[in-house]
Amino acid sequence: MVETKKADKKLPIVDDLKNPVLAAVGAADLAVEQFNEIVDAVRDRAGEARSDANTRVRDTRERLAKWQKALPKRRDDLQQRLSTAELRKTATTFREQATERFDNLVERGEAALKRLRSQFTRSSSKPARKAPAKKAAAT
Q1: Does one domain contain both 64 and 94?
Q2: SS3 for 68?
């Protein structure tokens, strides 16, 4: 009988294992619950993103269709604005502006040249300073 008591002391009692096992099951259940919540949230976001993308695609297609319908009219308007007479008028305006700007630059250049010449004549009329004498190299 003494031997059976020693064997009983070595084996754990079911009540001793009950709480740790239940804690492990509870932790696993919590992990599964949180995982399912995350999966649901991702699915909701994916559905919203899909819906937003579909809306954007639809809106873009509508804008593109409007532009395609308006394109011939815009092309005609552009052709009218770019008629030969209109292009000549624009080219003449640009030529006149370029000529005027060029003439202004010529006048400015003449004034600058006069100013430089007057500075040069004033500086050349002053007596030149003698350069300092160089020392003879010792041999």
Answers
A1: no
A2: helix
